[in-house]
Structure formats: structure tokens, C-alpha cells
Amino acid sequence: MAEGDSKPQKTSEKTETRFGEGFLTDIWYFAALSSDLKPGQLTRYEILGEPVLLGRSKAGQLFGLKDICPHRAAPLSAGRFVKEASGAETVECPYHGWRFAADGACAAIPSLVADQPLDVSRIRVRRYPVQESQGLIFVWIASDARKDAEPDQPPPVFPGVVGGGPKLVDRMDFDAHIDHAVVGLMDPAHGPYVHQQWWWRSAKSQHEKAKRFEPREAGFSMVRHEPSKNSRAYAILGGEPLTEITFRLPGLRWEHVTVGKRQVLSLTCLTPISEKKTRITQIVWSDHPAFLVLKPFIAAGARAFLRQDGDMVNLQNEGLKYDPPLIWIDDADKQAKWYHQLKREWAAARREKRAFVNPVEAGTLRWRS
Questions:
Q1: Architecture of domain 168-368
Q2: Where are the domains of the chain?
Q3: Which site among 64, 199, 238, 255 is 20 to 30 Å from 141 CA-CA?
Q4: pLDDT at residue 249 is higher than 90
Q5: Which stretches make up the Rieske domain (predicted)?
Q6: Cβ-count burial 319-344 (b if 16+ within 10 Å, e if not)
């Protein structure tokens, strides 16, 4: 067992699968955009209640470490990069100058003198595997902090990442557990009440919907279809748009719209900061000319949507603080039920060291909105 970080991840069957408690592990979590982390930069993030240092060395190497020095608990992110005699770059703690390599091993303790025997490499901080994909940074959160295991799967890949870098990026922290944030995100019936803009729809504009769903990798998808006639915002794309909306564990939801050869991808990433706070990152890519002319208006609309959802989360918290039982109904809340089933199956498959079996069955859901 490595010195300095012997504390296991606080997870169990109960905390991983009970709604509104705990977090899934052995899975990739979105952390940041690649552009957020410049060479020579150290940045502190909080993911699943743990401090995570994401760093990019001056040479461009990306890495993740627990942002606590095992000596006196100072955050390593407040330190700096130091080049060793070997040429390797290490992170120097700002308190006493302990230095750590990208793999978490201690490289030097300046206060030691020559006749003080100590194998400093046995002192380690937890390493978080990180990968960049499509301009996004993902962090692998293992179930056991004591094991320096590599991920057994790649991070997710999304369709429609086109047109260079993102056209829009917006972030907001919701005062909610990721479970409530996810369920709110996929809820198909709240739109006419929470999002009542003239350019979108009103509470009076409700129609019966029937949408086909299929299981997808670690999630499910509302298969490609024409947008509802009362969803006015699609009109700015012109032509005959088709859309597909997909959800994937632990908290990734994307809408891929095609208009002929043009594409729009709207990706929403939910990252749990703590038990009671979730970061929402909304990213849009597109090669559609509408984003050249109407980008300020589209950005303002997306920002308004996100903040309306945030306001509703805060209002919902007034009731949730009494821990009431919640009633979920078919078909409007079927996606929420699927999410809970997916969580349980993911946790069980990892615990039992077997392949994940998607519990979602293909079918058509109907509701009014």
C-alpha cells in the first residue's frame, strides 16, 4: 500500500445506487475543456467531494493528482512546476517544497539531509487517470483509491463535433445532487412551465408526444426524429432538421441535430462537485451558418434556459430538505426510472467484475408537453 493516501473511496452498494446519495465510480467524469488548461498551468477542481489537481506541464503533459500534499495538507495546485536534473517536470508544494511527479510519486524532500535514509518514492499522492478526447478532459474515478489501476475503457466519443472549436460554452453550479440534476435534465414535461420564452413555447402550447427510445452504450437515446412542431427554436436552422437525444452515465446528455449536411451538437455534462452541488457545462459545436449570424441570440437563449433550470432546482430544494417520497409516473418519468436502473446495473457489474448489461428496453414513450 502506498504511503500518504491509504484511504479508500467512500462508496458502497447503498451509496452508489440509492437515489440522491453517493456517486458512481470506475467511470469517466467530465472535468474541463482542453482549452481551460494551458501549458504550465495547475488548476484545482473538486469532483465527487475530492480535491483534484489537473496540471499540464510546460512540455504539454496532462495529469491528475489528489490536490493535497501528504506532508501538511497544503494544496499542490498552489505550487509550481520545477524541472528536475533528469529533465522531468515535477509539482512543488508551496509549503515545504516537497516535489511530486505526474505519477504521484514523491521526487524530493528538500529538508532531508544526506545521512537521513528515506525512500521518498514510497511517498505518493493519489493519481487520477486523465484523457483528452475531442477537446474535452475526462477524469477516471476508481472505486478504490488505494489501487493505481488504469481505466478499462476509453472516454465517450460524441457525434457532430464539427466546425473547429465550440461555438458556445456555458457553466453553472446547481445546488443539487447529480441524481436530481440528471432527472431534471431529461424531464420532458417541465418545458412549457419552466421555459416560457416567446421564441420557444408557452404553457398553452402543449401537444401529445410519442417518441421512440433505444438502449445505447451505458444509456439510452430518443432516436432520430423531426422536432416537435411547437419547438420554435429549431426554425432558425431552416430546412428540415432531424434530432437525436442521447443520455449516458454518469451524467452526459447530448442532442445531435442534422440539417442536410450541416450539424449541431449540444452537449451537457454534469459533474458532481459534492453531495449537494453539481456543475453543469453546456457546450455547442456546429458548422451551421446560423451560428455566424445569430450566435449572440443563441447564446443568450441557452444561458436563459440554464438559469431557469437552476432557479427551479433552488425552488425544488425547498421541498427536498424535508426528504419527502417522490412519485414517478409512466411515461413522462420513464427516463428517470431508466437512469436509476442504469446506475444500479453499473454498480453491480463493477462490483461483481462482469460485463455491464443495459437494462433499458426499446419502446415508445408518450406524454404531453
A1: Alpha-Beta Complex (3.90)
A2: 27-141, 168-368
A3: 255
A4: yes
A5: 29-139
A6: eeeeeeeeeeeebbbbbbbbbbebbb
Residue 5 is predicted with a pLDDT of: 44
Q: What is the DSSP string of 40-98?
A: TEEEEEEETTEEEEEEE-TT--EEEEESS-TTT---GGGSEEEE-TTS-EEEEPTTT--
Cα separation, 124 vs 129, whole angstroms: 15
According to DSSP, the residues that pair with 220 across neighbouring strands are 215, 247
Q: Are 297 and 322 in contact (CB under 8 A)?
A: no
Q: Is the pLDDT of residue 183 over 70?
A: yes
The side-by-side arrangement of strands in the sheet containing 80-83 is 80-83, 89-92, 99-100, 106-108
pTM (predicted TM-score):
0.91
Q: What percent of the chain has pLDDT over 70?
A: 89
**For residue 196, what is its C-alpha cell?**
416560457
Q: What is the C-alpha separation between 183 and 188, in angstroms, rounded?
A: 10
The mean per-residue pLDDT over the stretch 222-242 comes to 75
Least confident range from 5-19, 39-53, 248-262: namely 5-19
Mean pLDDT of the chain: 89
Residues 6+ apart with CB under 8 A from 175: 276, 277, 313, 314, 317
| CATH architecture for segment(s) 27-141 | 3-layer Sandwich (2.102)
